[in-house]
Write a structure and sequence with these properties.
The chain has 17 helices and 13 strands. The strands form five sheets. It has a four-stranded parallel beta sheet with strand order 7-6-5-8. Strands 9-10-13 form a three-stranded parallel beta sheet, with helices on both faces. The chain has a two-stranded antiparallel sheet with strand order 1-2. α7 links the parallel β6 and β7. The longest helix has 20 residues. Bound molecules: pyridoxal-5'-phosphate.
Amino acid sequence: MSVMYKSTRSKSDKVTASQAILKGLADDGGLFVPDSIPVFDIKLEDLAGLSYQETAYEVMKLFLSDFTKEELMACIQGAYDDKFDTEEIAPLVKKDGAYYLELFHGKTIAFKDMALSILPYLMTTSARKNGVKNEIVILTATSGDTGKAALAGFADVEGTSIIVFYPKNGVSPIQEKQMLTQKGKNTKVVGIHGNFDDAQTGVKNMFNSKELAAKMDAKGYQFSSANSINIGRLVPQIVYYVYSYGQLLKQGEIQCGEKINVVVPTGNFGNILAAYYAKNMGLPIETLYCASNENKVLYDFFQTGTYDRKRDFILTSSPSMDILISSNLERLIYKIAGEDADKTKSLMDALTGQGQYDITEDMKKGLDCFVGGFATEEETAQSIRRVYEAADYIMVTHTAVASHVYYDKAKDSGL
Ligand SMILES: *Cc1c(COP(=O)(O)O)cnc(C)c1O
């Protein structure tokens, strides 16, 4: 079965996976979504025997159905190799009663490497498949980790160049140095006056400008995105949820078919949306816990059905989650609106115009499998201490936010 991609904001023509990867954002400003979520064509119990690369192939072939087997295998082999410091690529470890999926074993030690190691391969393969002659200019907004991981992924990749925009005072000093010292003839980094949302909005505006696109084209360039608005970022992220289920089976921690819960540190809603897609593919996931830091716009949304970005932007110790406009939520909104593009567009216009939108009671039902939670700065710090003392395991702040939400929920639900 072949999966095509359509926009969340209009009934424009469908595009192939490779075209969606090349474009990044749809012409109408919407995000590309698969016209149907494919289901596994292997048995769940077989997941236990698959390597990370084999799992990646089984998942990605279903979403990127216009890639040939050879093309996709070449992308996967190129990305998930000894750049990672462990053959497992994403080890699952048990600490103090919970499982932690370690997504930091890549080249820049950031979780973003999981998807950004493969995106350049998917992008150049897509360009070749579609006979693109232009140089592809990757525009990326970052609140920290994405920038370095994207720069490292695209550095000196033939036929591409990359420009990263980051909030001048909104990333850590180390992250800033990581980005500013990036090697490569085709890399550029720009610090902006503003926060991550400003950077992301600016990038989206550049994408949406037909005038700029025409000027670029005349000079032999076209834009694409390395942010998680690009389905080429999202699809590789589904893989590690499927892989972790296989690991739980392999380690004898669960029975085949047994449901698991996932707690996901969330910012732009890409990571957790990938888990949602995995669930829709048939992976036995019960509840998706969406963990936010003090920028808890998503927590409030899951509580009330109102998405309200009119609040102070707080700089926290988990900067990759300092976001008030979670772009990928649009893909979920589209789904729970019954794939109604007009409806989605009017809600997104309300978010831009009035700074908020409300969903209907009917749409709220589609959120049944989501539970929101958040951690304050104090709770994040306590969470790091608790796991360190209990299990001698040191968590980064982002993981600590999720760990706090897990313990908090576990206390009152016996999770
Ligand atoms: C980006 C990031 C997140 C959040 O992922 P989203 O897809 O933006 O929700 C969480 N933790 C870390 C370490 C990150 O870099």
